[in-house]
Every structure is written in C-alpha cells, then in structure tokens.
C-alpha cells in the first residue's frame, strides 16, 4: 500500500465553486513528487486537504489515504495522531508556523516531547540536536523569539519542528518562496539532505519549475484545480515538441525555466 494514495480528490468552496477536481496520485514511502502550478491553481488547497487542514467552509470529496487512514470526512480526533507521525508540513511563511511568543528552543522541544516522550535533560539535548541538524548551532537561536532571527533561520527552525516528530512524509508548500535566492538554495539543499538521510517521502509544492526540479524529477502540473500533466521533469521539458501534451501553461513554464537557465548560463 502506498504511503499516500489520493483518488479523485475534490475541494469545493462555500460558494459551490470547485477549487480542485479529480486529483489522483500515489506516493510511495521514501519517494518524491512535485506539485507545480501557477498561483491559484489549487496546490495549497490540495495539500491542506491531504492533511485534513482545510479551513472552515471548504469541503473535500474523494479519497485521501494517508498511511492507511482515510482523511476525507475523518473526525479531527482521527487526524491528530496522523499529523507529525505520518505527515508534517512546512509552509511558505515560517512566521505563520511559529508561535511569536515562545522561544525557538521550546517550540522545537514540544513535538519531540509529544512524539518521542522525552523529558528534562534528554529533551533539551534532543532539541539542540534537532536544531544542529538544520545548521542552527548558535545557542542564542534556541533562546530567541521568532522575530529576533532571520527569515532563513526561521524557516530552518520550522523545518526542525516539522521533522522533530519523525514524519514518514514531508509536505513542503513553497518553502523557499519568501526567501532571497541564496538562502533559497541553502534551504533546498538542507531539505534534500534531510529527506534523503531519513528516507522520508516528499511532496514538494511550488510555482517555480526550477525550484521543483532541484528537488524531484517526478511532477504533476496543476492548472485551474486540475492535474494537467504528470510525468518526469525530462518529459515535461520535452513537452512543447510533443503535440499531445502541448498544454499552453506547460509550454509557458518550460519557456520561463529555459530563459532562466540561459540567463544563469551567461553569467
Ligand atoms: N478558504 C477559501 N475559500 C474560498 N476559496 C479559496 C479558499 N482558499 C483558497 N481558495 C481559492 O482556491 C483556489 C486555489 O488556491 P490555492 O491557494 O490552492 O492555489 P495555489 O496553487 O496554492 O496558489 P498560491 O501559490 O498562490 O498559494 C484559488 O482560486 C483561491 O482563491
């Protein structure tokens, strides 16, 4: 059985508008998949539906089996044990994931205590280790509040928190979009290393083809709430010459990624 099995997932707004329709894919333990699409294409809503975190008024239909548990229509008490253990999410803006009034060290300790049952000195040591794994080795960071550290450091801390529960699946939703380019590259390298080292599965969501291609070669392209294409990055890059898959959005994505490549190549 797949770690994540999404079948005919639909998400509907309170107005009745379909935000996501007919999304189907499987993700095996330890494998990676990219969800790519322009703003508003339904990527975030899909990832929220997968973890049962859809906001009030949004309704999911179809099936999402996460580690064998049906998420669609599940009661909150069924979902709580899944979060962290089966899947954790890293969001675009780490400030929304972090508690502004709690020191970073405490925030890292919390999931470690909850999921691994550590207390006291062992808990403090595990939190220091979790921060070291995301290259936050300066002990001032653990004592700092979120607003006292940089955006890149905050995203590292959010990653440490997401991974502290040892999830089987990490969902990263535009994890580097709010960061400047050099920090973006560092965070991608960090995620790549940790996902690999821990044998986690990764669902990586971004509007940026170049960023997705740094993390995975297996991608789904979404537009207007639909999956318009699934395949390898290579097949996608070859798409414009293939009349069957000449989706205008895919062509535009590839064109802009090539322009970026060419620009970088000239430097
Ligand atoms: N709570 C909500 N109520 C109604 N519509 C919503 C809600 N949340 C999102 N939407 C709509 O659902 C559609 C998909 O949004 P979603 O955030 O999933 O897109 P996205 O592909 O992740 O884009 P972005 O990268 O900009 O976040 C958009 O048209 C958005 O306006």
From TrEMBL:
Membrane topology qualifier: Peripheral membrane protein
InterPro entries recorded: AAA+_ATPase, ABC_Ni/Peptide_Import, ABC_transporter-like_ATP-bd, ABC_transporter-like_CS, P-loop_NTPase
Annotated source species: Conyzicola lurida
Gene Ontology MF: a single term: ATP hydrolysis activity
Lineage, broadest ranks: Bacteria, Bacillati, Actinomycetota, Actinomycetes, Micrococcales
PROSITE patterns registered for this protein in UniProt: ABC_TRANSPORTER_1 (PS00211), ABC_TRANSPORTER_2 (PS50893)
Similarity remark: Belongs to the ABC transporter superfamily.
Top-level taxon of the source organism: Bacteria
Protein name according to UniProt: Peptide/nickel transport system ATP-binding protein
Alphabetically ordered keywords of this record: ATP-binding, Cell inner membrane, Cell membrane, Membrane, Nucleotide-binding, Translocase, Transport
Record-annotated ABC transporter domain positions: 4-249
Cellular compartments annotated: Cell membrane
């Amino acid at each position: 059985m797949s770690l994540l099995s999404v079948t005919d997932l639909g998400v509907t707004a309170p107005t009745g508008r379909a935000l996501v329709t007919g999304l189907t894919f499987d993700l095996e333990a330890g494998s990676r998949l990219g969800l790519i699409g322009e703003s508003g294409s339904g990527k975030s809503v899909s990832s929220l539906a997968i973890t049962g975190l859809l906001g009030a008024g949004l309704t999911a239909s179809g099936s999402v089996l996460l580690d064998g548990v049906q998420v669609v229509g599940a009661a909150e008490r069924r979902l709580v044990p899944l979060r962290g253990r089966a899947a954790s999410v890293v969001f675009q803006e780490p400030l929304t994931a972090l508690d502004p009034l709690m020191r970073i060290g405490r925030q890292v300790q919390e999931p470690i205590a909850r999921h691994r049952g550590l207390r006291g000195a062992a808990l403090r040591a595990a939190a220091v280790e979790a921060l070291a794994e995301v290259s936050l080795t300066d002990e001032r960071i653990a004592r700092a509040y979120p607003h006292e550290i940089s955006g890149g450091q905050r995203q590292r801390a959010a990653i440490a928190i997401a991974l502290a529960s040892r999830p089987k699946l990490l969902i990263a939703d535009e994890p580097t979009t709010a960061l400047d380019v050099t920090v973006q590259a560092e965070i991608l390298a960090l995620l790549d290393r940790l996902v690999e080292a821990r044998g986690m599965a990764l669902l990586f969501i971004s509007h940026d083809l170049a960023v997705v291609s740094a993390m995975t070669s297996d991608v789904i392209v979404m537009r207007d709430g639909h999956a318009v294409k699934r395949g390898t990055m290579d097949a996608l890059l070859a798409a414009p010459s293939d009349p069957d898959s000449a989706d205008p959005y895919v062509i535009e994505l590839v064109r802009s990624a090539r322009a970026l490549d060419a620009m970088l190549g000239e430097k």
